[in-house]
Structures are given as C-alpha cells and as structure tokens.
TrEMBL record:
Part of the Bam complex. The keyword Glycoprotein does not apply. PANTHER family: OUTER MEMBRANE PROTEIN ASSEMBLY FACTOR BAME. One of its GO terms (molecular function) is protein-macromolecule adaptor activity. It holds the Pfam family BamE. This is Outer membrane protein assembly factor BamE. Belongs to the BamE family. It comes from Volucribacter amazonae. Keywords: Cell outer membrane, Lipoprotein, Membrane, Palmitate, Signal, Viral envelope protein, Virion. HAMAP family: OM_assembly_BamE. It is a lipid-anchor. Residues 1-20 form the signal peptide. InterPro entries: BamE, BamE-like, BamE_dom.
Length: 135
C-alpha cells in the first residue's frame, strides 16, 4: 500500500522539474569585459600616431601579438542580462618605429549619445504645491 504515495511523489517531482521557467526569472547582471571602446575615442585615432599616444587615448591593449609587438588588440565584450554577448575588436598595426600604419574596427560601435534607462536624469527640484493639495 506504500506504492500509491510513492508514485504520486514521483509524478509531482517530475511535473515540478519538467516545466521550469526559472532561468528567465532570475536576475542577471550586465557583464562588461575588456577595454571599453567609445566611438568618439576611436574617431580620434589617426595613422601616424605613436604608441604612447594610442595608449593614452585607448588605454592598455588587452592583447599584443605574441610573434611581433607591432599589433595591438582592443577587445570589448558586453553581455546584457539574457541577451547574446556583443563583442567589438579594434586592431591597431604599428611599423618598426612604433607609429600607427593602419587600424581596423570589426563592427561599428553603438551610439554614445544614446540614452539608456539607467542614465536618465532625475529632476532635483520637485514642483512646489500647496500642502493642502494631495493630488
């Protein structure tokens, strides 16, 4: 007679675990990694700049070419919540005098003028109303 409660417990456990949508309910933080590339900084990059100027403008590269020190890679990877990761790679090539000969950005960067929901400006001065008006 113990078979009936055992079967119902197994059916209940299978029903609870089979139709789970918990993965979308759990909050996932935005994860930025690498060099944060902004469009106005990349637009300032010019052929003929030396390595110190590039490092001042963009920061230290994530990766330098292990076979020759004439190529720098700036990689920016961002994953927002449950979206697919978004990666941008800037490759800067130098000559033997350590001046920029060419650079290439694999994909266009998102607009830096774009206002996100987290960047909204809150008005510091609330509208003044008489104390007897509650609505």
């Amino acid at each position: 007679m113990q078979l009936k409660p055992m079967i119902s417990a197994v059916c209940l456990a299978m029903a609870v675990s089979a139709c789970s949508s918990v993965d979308k309910i759990v909050y996932r933080i935005d994860v930025p990694q690498g060099n944060y590339l902004q469009s106005y900084e990349v637009e300032q990059l010019r052929v003929g700049m030396n390595a110190e100027q590039v490092q001042y403008l963009l920061g230290t590269p994530v990766l330098t070419d292990p076979f020759s020190a004439t190529t720098w890679y700036y990689v920016y990877l961002e994953q927002r919540g449950y979206q697919k990761p978004d990666q941008h790679t800037l490759t800067v090539h130098f000559d033997n005098n350590r001046t920029v000969t060419s650079f290439h950005l694999d994909r266009p960067l998102p607009d830096s003028d774009q206002v996100f929901e987290n960047n909204t400006i809150i008005d510091a001065q609330p509208a003044k109303s008489p104390w007897w008006k509650f609505w």
